[in-house]
Design a protein that fits this description.
alpha/beta, Aspartate Aminotransferase, domain 2, 2 domains, globular, Aminotrans_V_PyrdxlP_BS, SP_NH2Trfase/AEP_transaminase
Length: 396
């Protein structure tokens, strides 16, 4: 496959040449006195993306999965109860991680294509009069279904129930692509990674941690070594790492933040909406349906699209790869064989998205899908012909 073709998977995303160059650096001493000049601005920059003044930023050489593990192992104890809704592959995997850590997981089964059920969270929390539930875990953007959940409504439900549980949010495929308000939404730990909205290679877990979550560390008894917040924050405060850091990714994240702030975060979010809406116009023109059940749940970073009855979405994505050298997201979990995914986050433009739509249209036509060749591209073209409306400059 030509590396000139963009990928349309929901992460890892396309890496801009500017960031590739930023990561091509020679080895340097991470214990040298001047390393703090590199690290400290990166941690402060991530705070701006998170919209937090009170939270601390912690990074680990890992992925989002490592970030999940860090969140639970630093704040909870064996046997602690957590409340989670399962409505996609990534909420399912977080549940699995918690169970493997010996936590008591109360699961709210939810239809795939729906979002975080704030009303059912409230009901469960009101019933928990002994406050056994220590944390509520929510996947902000469910990558398997293309669903963006309302985190503010979850926090409102927790407040209505008068419950003191911590709120943990997986924002791996949303942060730096759609607005996130850590302080306003009362998020205690947010988990993300380097390989999606930050447009870097995989290898860095990025977390925001509230004062309430930091206080929970004092009584937490789950084991942690590599992912210990205290070790990392202690070393960061002195300008270093408790072990060898992913130096190239730190340089890359520094330059990624520069790119995001130069564009303006509000403009970044407006661009993602525009790209997503172009894809949605194409899906409608094809006569296909999104997995997300309603427009208020539509994700601006990934669209999961049902294939017609009698078709196999895996054959479609395989054909697009082998015939045209372009990758699209496969169906995960309950969506396996039923839906394919178009990732539209990170380093993408209108023109790049049009190339992806044209490619998947050709693949569908090759496999005799009931679509008209060019229909989706034309619908997206009509939308993209409208001038983009620049958003107000972000304060960041």
């Amino acid at each position: 496959m030509s590396d000139q073709n963009p990928v349309f998977i929901p992460g890892p995303t396309n890496i801009p040449d500017r960031l590739r160059r930023a990561m091509q650096v020679q080895t340097r001493d991470h214990r040298a006195p001047d390393f703090v000049e590199t690290l400290a601005p990166v941690l402060e920059g991530v705070k701006k993306v998170l919209n937090t003044t009170d939270g601390r930023v912690v990074t680990f050489p890992s992925t989002g999965t490592g970030g999940w593990e860090a969140a639970v192992s630093n704040t909870l104890s064996p046997g602690d109860k957590v409340l989670v809704a399962r409505y996609g592959m990534f909420s399912h995997r977080w549940i699995d991680l918690c169970q493997r850590h010996g936590l008591d997981v109360q699961i709210i089964e939810t239809a795939w294509g729906a979002g975080a059920p704030a009303d059912r969270f409230e009901e469960a929390l009101r019933a928990d009069t002994d406050y056994r539930i220590k944390a509520v875990l929510v996947t902000h953007n469910e990558t398997a279904t293309g669903v963006l959940s309302n985190i503010a409504s979850v926090r409102a439900a927790m407040q209505a129930a008068g419950h003191p549980a911590l709120l943990f949010v997986d924002a791996v495929s949303s942060l730096a692509s759609v607005p996130f308000h850590m302080d306003e939404w009362g998020v205690d730990i947010v988990v993300s990674g380097s390989q999606k909205g930050f447009m870097l290679t995989t290898g860095m877990a990025i977390l925001g941690v509230s004062p309430k979550a930091l206080a929970a560390m004092q009584t937490a008894r789950l084991p942690r070594t590599f992912f210990d917040f205290r070790d990392m924050m202690g070393a960061n405060a002195k300008g270093g790492f408790p072990y060898t850091p992913p130096l190239q990714l730190i340089y890359g994240l520094s330059e990624s933040l520069n790119m995001l702030f130069e564009e303006g975060l509000d403009n970044v979010y407006a661009r993602h909406y525009r790209l997503a809406e172009g894809v949605r116009r194409a899906v409608d023109a094809w006569g296909l349906k999104l997995v997300a059940q309603s427009p208020d749940l539509y994700s601006d970073t990934v669209s999961a699209i049902y294939v017609p009855d009698g078709f196999d979405s895996n054959k479609l994505t395989d054909h697009a790869f082998h015939a045209y050298g372009v990758s699209f997201g496969i169906g995960l979990g309950e969506m396996n064989g039923r839906a394919f995914r178009i990732g539209h986050l990170g380093s993408l433009t209108d023109v790049m998205v049009l190339s992806g739509l044209a490619t998947i249209e050709m693949a569908m036509a090759d496999l005799n899908y009931p679509i008209r060749l060019g229909s989706g591209v034309a619908a997206a073209q009509e939308y993209f012909r409208q001038p983009a409306r620049p958003a107000a400059k972000s304060a960041a």
